[in-house]
UniProtKB/TrEMBL annotation:
It comes from Leeuwenhoekiella blandensis (strain CECT 7118 / CCUG 51940 / KCTC 22103 / MED217) (Flavobacterium sp. (strain MED217)). This is Cellulase. One of its GO terms (biological process) is cellulose catabolic process. Keywords: Carbohydrate metabolism, Cellulose degradation, Glycosidase, Hydrolase, Polysaccharide degradation. Residues 24-330 form the Glycoside hydrolase family domain.
């Protein structure tokens, strides 16, 4: 066997063994976010099985993306009833399993034109959800509210909106713990440029999908920039048999072409560590709690590269004492198979 090929397989085997001995801190259990509408009817048995499987595999933290506005306002009477029944059972189920639960507000509709008015609606939705749980005497001390997923407002406008939302919620539920993600889709760079809110019981959140060229390769919703398939992780050096693919014709003259040319610098373990260090330094400067509420890679990437990447991000987060939630248990970025095979946990 060629020595380079042998070296490649040895490295892969070592990486998978390393993943086996490390622990991903949390996972996103998707299905209620309505971003990609499923044809399947999601009921509690769907989530109960996931909760039990994750608990068996050592997970203690779940993030639940939910389209709150749809289920509380736009859905028909029957679907509203089914949602309320489902969410109560999920909250009870995670409490029984001694797992923490983030409920994250997807498809909130906040934008620069409506944020003043819509902030009140977001608060109202959260209050309705919490009231429903408290009226049924359901314990919520293990719940965290991710008030708005991936806000797209400018930083100042988002801070104004977030303060209004949080204060509105806390007029009724003063002790609730809130997750506040920075603007520009929960950007680490925007977070590093902000100052903590003048409020207590706030956890700061961010999302990490870098390098985007790798994590979102072949995803239709990100357009031609990510049309190139076969991007490996890490960037292959001269000692490996893995090669970079040719840039897809559709990606020429897009941001993807720039990202492709820079991949030898961005597609490395060191680059991941350096970028996450921005958050670590901010966290230590202000002495606040920070969580990475999403990180992951599409199934369009090859399995060894996915494992390399997930392990790399997970390990850096652990080194920096930042709780992380991999996206997602099932779906386009799903890691269920890795968990079942004990390749990540």
């Amino acid at each position: 066997m060629n020595s380079n090929i042998l070296k490649y397989f040895i490295i892969n085997f070592f990486t998978i063994c390393t993943i086996f001995t490390t622990r991903s801190q949390g996972v996103n259990c998707t299905g209620l976010e309505k971003t990609w509408k499923s044809r399947k009817s999601i009921n509690y048995s769907y989530y109960k099985a996931d909760i039990e499987k994750l608990k068996i595999n050592g997970f203690k933290h779940i993030r639940l993306p939910v389209d709150l506005n749809y289920f509380l306002n736009d859905a028909d009477k029957r679907e509203k009833y089914k949602f309320k029944r489902l969410i109560k059972r999920i909250v009870k189920g995670t409490a029984k399993a001694h797992m923490s639960l983030i409920i994250s507000n997807f498809n909130h509709g906040l934008n620069l034109e409506n944020y003043t008015k819509e902030s009140d609606r977001v608060s109202k939705n959260w209050i309705e959800l919490l009231n429903m749980l408290s009226e049924n005497e359901i314990a919520v001390d293990h719940i965290y509210l991710d008030i708005v997923n991936e806000p797209v407002l400018y930083p100042k406008e988002w801070e104004v909106s977030a303060l209004k939302i949080i204060r509105g919620i806390r007029e009724v539920h003063p002790n609730v713990v809130v997750i506040y993600g920075a603007s520009n889709y929960n950007s680490i760079y925007e977070l590093s440029r902000t100052k903590p809110l003048p409020l207590d019981n706030i956890i700061y959140g961010f999302h990490f999908y870098e390098p985007f060229l790798f994590t979102h390769q072949g995803t239709s919703w990100t357009g031609d920039q990510n049309a190139t398939l076969g991007i490996p992780f890490p960037y292959p050096d001269s000692t490996t048999t893995v090669k970079m693919p040719q840039l897809a014709p559709q990606a020429i003259h897009t941001a993807g072409e720039v990202n492709y040319k820079d991949y030898d610098k961005t597609g490395t373990y060191q680059a991941i560590s350096d970028k996450l260090a921005w958050v670590k330094n901010w966290k230590e400067l202000y002495k606040v709690e920070v969580w990475c509420t999403e990180y992951g890679v599409t199934k369009n990437a090859d399995e060894p590269s996915r494992l390399h990447y997930l392990n790399a991000v997970n390990q850096v987060l652990r080194d920096y004492n930042i709780r992380g939630y991999v996206w997602e248990y099932k779906g386009n970025f799903g890691v269920k198979e890795f968990i079942i095979k004990k390749q990540i946990h």
